[in-house]
Amino acid sequence: MVEQYKRNPNTSCLVCGKPIYKRPVEIQRNEGHVFCSMVCYGVSCRKESPCIICGKPILSRLNKKTCSRSCANKHRAGIKYKINRPRDKVVTQRALKIRLMKDRGKSCERCDYNKYEILQVHHKDGNRINNSLDNLELICPNCHFEEHYLEKSWLNKNGGVG
């Protein structure tokens, strides 16, 4: 009696090719993308890309380019990290500050504020590239703000305070 309800296959699974029956409405709604099981559907959803070294398919995630550590090491061997690397601005600014503190002391050169941890390097000519010692000044944040922003303040314009 069960045999009379068995349907004849009208399509095949997109992944494994197994002949299956799906309602014609389901085939139309899914634009022919039909699967025999959840496993085949999961396989169809996988996004794989080839390893750039050996070509083995790997799951594409988080910009993954290689399939294993050995392939990653082979890929990394050709990369030259130090050549043509731009200068690290933070490292050079820190080195300038340390050199100025050794030469000129650990206080602001304008107001003698003595918390050296917050002192800043000021370029007298305004050119950040010109790091000659006679162009540099070690000043506190208050003096640095006065140097750069006090003359441009909106309070100095017409209608300001005072």
Overview of this structure, please?
With 162 residues, the chain is α+β, with helices and mostly antiparallel strands. It folds into three domains: 8-46, no CATH class; 47-77; 89-155, 3-Layer(aba) Sandwich (His-Me finger endonuclease fold), CATH 3.40.1800. It contains five helices and six strands; from the N terminus they run ββααββααββα. The strands form three sheets. Strands 1-2 form a two-stranded antiparallel sheet. Strands 3-4 form a two-stranded antiparallel ribbon. A two-stranded antiparallel sheet has the order 5-6. The protein is elongated. The mean pLDDT is 82.
Task: Describe the structure in brief.
The protein is of the alpha+beta class. Helices cover 30% and strands 11% of the residues.
